[in-house]
Amino acid sequence: GQPLVFDMSYDKQMGNRELVNTVSQLIECEGWNRRSLEPFHLHFCNISPGGSYHKELLKRYGATWDKLLITVTEKSYIDIFPRNKLVYLTADSPRVMKTFDHDKIYIIGSIVDRSIQTGLSLANAKRLNLATERLPLDEYLKWEIGAKNLTLNQMINIMLSMKDTGRWEEALKFVPKRKHEGFVQNRKEKILYNDKKKRCTP
Ligand code: SAM
Q1: DSSP element (H, E) containing 183
Q2: Ligand 1 mean position to 112 CA, how many Å?
Q3: Does the beta carbon of 135 sit less than 6 angstroms from any atom of ligand 1?
Q4: C-beta of residue 80 within 8 angstroms of C-beta of residue 123
């Protein structure tokens, strides 16, 4: 199957509660993936043995841990995959993801941050010279307020849906409804909506 990478290099940027929360989300992600028609081959990269992520995952999974169909490794994705195939997903990317590419290896940052640390995953991708993309949220949804950073659960469901259907109208159903006012019907409506928003914000 197509690989999907979770970058586990953010344990030092999170407090204990955030880390526990991230692991809960990762466990759910593994479940969504396993139950899907065409699962990704999940890779948990950059995990330090005996580190806080590793300990928490072991604690939560117990004996199941060794039976999971996940590749868990200390290595970085840049040491496993060709660089030109990697795409780091980050809400702060200047590039919009247009279509789902079955040949690319997408990377998701395993981080839940309450006090949103903007640009953390973008900085990481830039440092490694990797391509980045953000989801086309503004392009498809009438966005209300709030951060465009989605949770890991939402991310994996969106990616599974894109892999399966290739349709943003399907995949973006996993964005919580409270964050937007529905789908943009056409280009004209999108321009009108964005104009209205601009006029309303001082
Ligand atoms: N401040 C963090 C950062 O610097 O990325 C936010 C982390 S977000 C809660 C968790 C991960 O989900 C991100 O690292 C990214 O891989 C992915 N993600 C969340 N929202 C995204 C979006 N709108 N577009 C692309 N990737 C997104």
Answers
A1: strand 180-183
A2: 9
A3: yes
A4: no
**Which residue from 144, 136, 171 is spatially nearest to 157, judged by alpha carbons?**
171
Pairing of strands 105-109, 180-183: unpaired
130 lines ligand 1 (CB under 6 A): no
What is the mean pLDDT of the segment spanning 73-85? 98
Cβ-in-10-Å burial (0-12, 13-18, 19+) of 107 comes to buried
Percent of the chain's residues with pLDDT above 70: 91
Q: In what order do the strands lie in the sheet with 86-89?
A: 71-72, 41-45, 3-7, 105-109, 86-89, 131-133
Ligand 1, atom 8: nearest CA belongs to which residue? 149
- Closest residue by Cα to residue 99 from 28, 201, 167, 150: 167
58 pocket-lining for ligand 1 (C-beta < 6 Å): no
One-letter amino acid of 156: I
pLDDT at 195: 67
* Whole-number Å distance between alpha carbons of 170 and 183: 11
Average of pLDDT values for 60-70? 91
**132 ligand 1 Cβ < 6 A:** no
Q: Do 104 and 85 touch, CB atoms closer than 8 A?
A: yes
